[in-house]
Each structure stands twice: as structure tokens, then as C-alpha cells.
Amino acid sequence: MGRRVRTKFYNEKQKECYIKEREVDGSNINIRRTMQVFFAATEKFERNLKKDCCNFSVREICDMLAGQNSSSAKFLENFRSQISRYTDWCIDNNKVDDNDNHYLDISKDIMTGFLNRNNTVITREELLKISSTFPNVSDTFMVLAIFEGFKRSDFYNLTLDKFNISKNRFTVQLEGRKLYVSQKLIELAVESANEYRKFNYDGETKGYKKTDDRVVKGSVNAMPVTLERSNKNIQERLARIKKEYGIAFGYKNLQNSGRINLVNKLVFINSSIIHDVSRVYKTYQSAIEKRYDKLYTDIPEWIEDNKKYILNLKYKEM
Questions:
Q1: I need a labelling partner for 305 at 20 to 30 A (CA). Which of 54, 234, 247, 257 fits?
Q2: Do 46 and 39 touch, CB atoms closer than 8 A?
């Protein structure tokens, strides 16, 4: 069950040729996964403009960057950088009409204006889009798992035999509770469990012991694994991701984003009381708090704090 990312892009043959050349180059073993995410992000704009992103003007590039609606400066910079590199390749292969790479005209100062910098809540769609460009699949698994209801301690000695698929229902047996999770999370768990190298964000890599069958592995030198060491590993990973990709990837913000997503699903399922969010929350409070930490405040205040996201269809992806 490998990671599946949509691969039908605008001008797909040209982009596939570029990806294959980058794979041969060998400088980035995750290049296919990364470029699939970025080319999927350019596709809508390419179809609207009826041209490949390598031929975009500065104005069209700015519109595309703003259209990502991203809270992560790192994601936007990676996006611009990788599409710029693709455009250089297109120039070398006579694919660019004016023979100019306009992505190089977009400064960091310009890009800052396209950020939702203070957005602490992230949709499932944006979480997957951004985290799919992380250098480690285990980090992608981790942030989605927290979004779906994992707590830090749930990663302790987590192995694939804790996950179960039965009649298209996906569950994980955690300490003292069973959670229903997405198929995507199980797919990522399989990839993460088979990841035996960790790429640090400064380019350094480290290996894991082949005998380590945990889904999220820790330091080779931190054996045997204790709950304290496992929690520290998760905390350090999250701190680095938050630093690189934005505050929405903090533990509390991921949990709150997942809670909003779940409450919105429950509200729309119970459409007869669609405007009574408080009543829906109280009805399902036990199930919600089995999955997420208890609220920091009372239900009406939480609803008020998050009113721009509640009853918003964007924040109820399955």
C-alpha cells in the first residue's frame, strides 16, 4: 500500500520526462513524490491559462502562488524553487516561448505577501499537500496521525500489527482505545515502517537498525526505547517541522485542526441541527474526547474561537 498521488498533470509527458531525468540524477531520492505534489498544484492554473507553468509570466506566477493559500513559507519557497528548476530544464529543451525563467523574478519579500502567516488551523487537504513534500515519510505519517487523533504517547512502540483493515473499515489499536482512521494513514504507516533512513532538514542523513520495526523510529543510539524517549523524539520532530513549515504544525494546532474537521463532519451528518454546533458537540463529546485532548475551555468559547472554520466545508475533508 504505497503512497498514491494523482499523476495526471497538464502536459504530462513533458513533466514525466523531467521527473525521470531527475531520478537518474539521484540528488533527491524523493523527487518523484515531491514533483507530483507540486505539479498537481500547478495543474488548475495551467488548464485555466491553457499553457504549461514553465511559460507563466510574473503576474501569472504570483496569482498561482497566492492561490496556494498556504501558511507555510517553506512550502511556498520549495514550490517556487522546484518549478523554477523545472523551467530551467524546459528552457534547455526549447520548451519556453520567451526563453526566460520568470520564477527567478519572485523574491522572498514578494512571496511573503502570499502567506496566511497567522493561520493556526490547517485543512486536511493542505496538510497532505505540504507534508507530502517532507523529506521523511515518517514525518508525514506523524502529522496526519495527530490530525486524526493520535497523542504523543500513541507513537510509543507503534507497529504495523496494531493497524487493521476489515470490510473497508480502517482501525488502529492504541493503549486503552481503538481509533477509526483513514486508509491514507495506514498507507503512510506501511511506508514509514519501511523507512530506514532519516533525512534532516539540513541535508544530513542517519540510518536506523533493520531490526527496528516501529512505524516511527528514533535514534539508533536510544535503545532500548522508553516512553520518555519516544515522546522526546516526537516533540523534537514536531518542533523542527513547525520551524520549517509554520505554526499550524504544532501539536496543539494539529489536534485542534483535526477536532474542527471532525466536528464539521458530525454537524453536516446531523444536518437537521446544522446550526446547533454546541448541541452536536455535546452529543458526541465522549467520542471526540476519546480521540483528542480535552478542550482548554468550555464548548461555547471553543466554538467562538474557531467560528471562521466551523460550518466551513473546506474544513471537513474525509
A1: 234
A2: no
Handedness of CA 242, 245, 246, 249 (dihedral sign): negative
- C-alpha grid cell for residue 131? 507534508
Q: What are the CA-CA distances from residue 241 to residues 7, 37, 83, 251, 311 (Å)?
A: 26, 18, 22, 10, 29
Phi, psi (rounded to 5 degrees) for 255:
-65, -45
Distance CA 41, CA 27 (A): 23
The side-by-side arrangement of strands in the sheet containing 163-166 is 163-166, 169-174, 177-180
Set of cell numbers at residue 210: 533493520
Residue ranges of domains in the chain: 12-112, 134-245, 251-315
pLDDT, tens only, 190-227: 999 988 777 776 666 666 766 778 898 876 555 567 88
CB contact at 8 A, 138 and 215: yes
Rounded Cα distance, 99 and 83, in Å: 15
Neighbours of 125 (CB within 10 A): 12
Q: HSE-up of 80 (CA within 13 Å, CB side)? A: 27
d(CA 237, CA 196): 16
CA angle 300, 305, 116 (to 5 degrees): 160
SS3 193: helix
* Torsion 97-23-62-12 (CA) sign: positive
Dihedral, CA of residue 262, residue 247, residue 80 and residue 111, to nearest 10? 120
Q: What is the largest CA-CA distance in the chain?
A: 62
What gap in Å lies between CA 8 and CA 13, rounded to an integer?
9
